[in-house]
């Protein structure tokens, strides 16, 4: 398949590398003035991997869109709206758009597939999402994992799973687009909470965080019209190891550095996602204690110890 991967960051470069590795015709497209693009264009490598010469690196968005059967987008989720507005200026009929990014639009509370759906006709340009655990640092070493592709279009997601599955990544067919997107986005917020626990020396509380986080997000998924059991699959609970424990997790590291009053310069999607989920919790009247705690610390300057105390020292409740 002719595939254009839009976005040259950590995940975008890994996706391009992976899809080329399993035999697809891949172009990696980024912004001409972005440092990560400049590095890839000049050296065909970055801090995570090295591109084979079979991958074309380009900043020409029109060419990237025109050539592709499949367009994979992997950028900051909060920039998706402005980016898809540019992409939709080109003819997208007959192409598949895959969102390989985990977030919820902070200003609207919309899932990313909903944002793209405002700009394309899904009967002509199907939308899919690619979510689940894994880090580029592990994949390039040949360490396998499992991921999920979901879409409202059954034929499209079956085609993508069949085309993309390999010994390195086994793909599963998603059955709940709402749950897949919300679960994948929300695990980054739980990842920030886990990092805060690490930074404060309360790592032992991660067990409680995981148990409660999954149940909390399952309630939100159900309120939004999804299947609450999706929170227990690869999109959320199945991604906890990679997000709450891995040294490669940007969200966990962000939380850890935050409580130590250190700057973390890399993208942590959970920051703005906490704002979006806080909005959804209020709108749909869903109790989200972990989301509320992270939101209050990041956006209302609440003391971290106070927020965590309210989270873990509460009135007596049944476990489920």
Structure notes:
It contains 14 helices and 8 strands. It is an alpha/beta fold. Helices cover 47% and strands 12% of the residues. It is globular. An 8-stranded mixed sheet has the order 3-2-1-4-5-6-7-8, sandwiched between helices.
Which percent range describes the beta-strand content? 5-15%
Tell me the structural class.
alpha/beta
Strand order of the largest sheet: 3-2-1-4-5-6-7-8
Q: How many DSSP-defined strands? A: 8
Helix-strand string: EHEHEHEHEHEHEHEHHHHHHH
The shape is globular
Index terms:
14 helices, single chain, alpha/beta, globular, 320 residues, eight-stranded mixed beta sheet
Q: How would you concisely characterize the structure shown here?
A:
The protein is α/β, with parallel strands linked by helices and 320 residues long. It is built from 14 helices and eight strands.
Walk me through the topology.
Layout (H helix, E strand, L loop, with lengths): L1 E5 L3 H12 L3 E5 L5 H9 L12 E3 L2 H7 L2 E4 L6 H8 L8 E4 L12 H6 L9 E5 L4 H4 L5 E7 L2 H11 L4 E5 L3 H24 L5 H18 L16 H6 L4 H10 L10 H14 L5 H11 L4 H9 L8
Parallel strand pairs: 1-2, 1-4, 2-3, 4-5, 5-6, 7-8
Antiparallel strand pairs: 6-7
């Amino acid at each position: 398949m002719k595939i254009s991967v839009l976005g040259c960051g950590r995940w975008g470069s890994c996706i391009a590398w992976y899809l080329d590795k399993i035999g697809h015709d891949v172009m990696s497209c980024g912004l001409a003035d972005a440092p990560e693009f400049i590095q890839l264009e000049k050296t065909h490598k970055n801090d995570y991997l090295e591109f084979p010469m079979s991958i074309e690196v380009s900043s020409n968005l029109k060419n990237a869109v025109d050539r592709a059967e499949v367009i994979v987008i992997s950028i900051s989720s909060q920039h998706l709206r402005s980016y898809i507005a540019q992409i939709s200026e080109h003819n997208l009929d007959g192409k598949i758009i895959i969102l390989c990014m985990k977030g919820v639009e902070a200003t609207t509370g919309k899932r990313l597939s909903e944002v793209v759906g405002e700009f394309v006709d899904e009967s002509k340009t199907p939308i899919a999402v690619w979510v689940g655990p894994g880090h580029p640092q592990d994949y390039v070493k040949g360490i396998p994992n499992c991921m999920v592709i979901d879409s409202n279009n059954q034929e499209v997601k079956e085609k993508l799973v069949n085309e993309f599955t390999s010994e390195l990544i086994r793909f599963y067919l998603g059955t709940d687009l709402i749950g897949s997107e919300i679960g994948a986005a929300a695990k980054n917020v739980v990842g920030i909470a886990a990092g805060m626990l690490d930074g404060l020396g309360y790592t032992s509380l991660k067990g409680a965080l995981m148990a409660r986080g999954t149940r909390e997000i399952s309630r939100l998924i159900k309120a939004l019209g999804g299947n609450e059991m999706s929170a227990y699959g690869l999109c959320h609970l199945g991604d906890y190891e990679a997000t709450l424990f891995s040294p490669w997790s940007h969200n966990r590291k962000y939380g850890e550095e935050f409580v130590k009053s250190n700057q973390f310069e890399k993208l942590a999607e959970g920051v703005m996602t906490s704002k979006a989920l806080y909005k959804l919790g209020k709108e749909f009247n869903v109790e989200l204690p972990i989301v509320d705690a992270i939101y209050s610390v990041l956006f209302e300057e609440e003391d971290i110890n106070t927020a965590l105390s309210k989270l873990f020292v509460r009135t007596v409740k049944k476990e489920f």
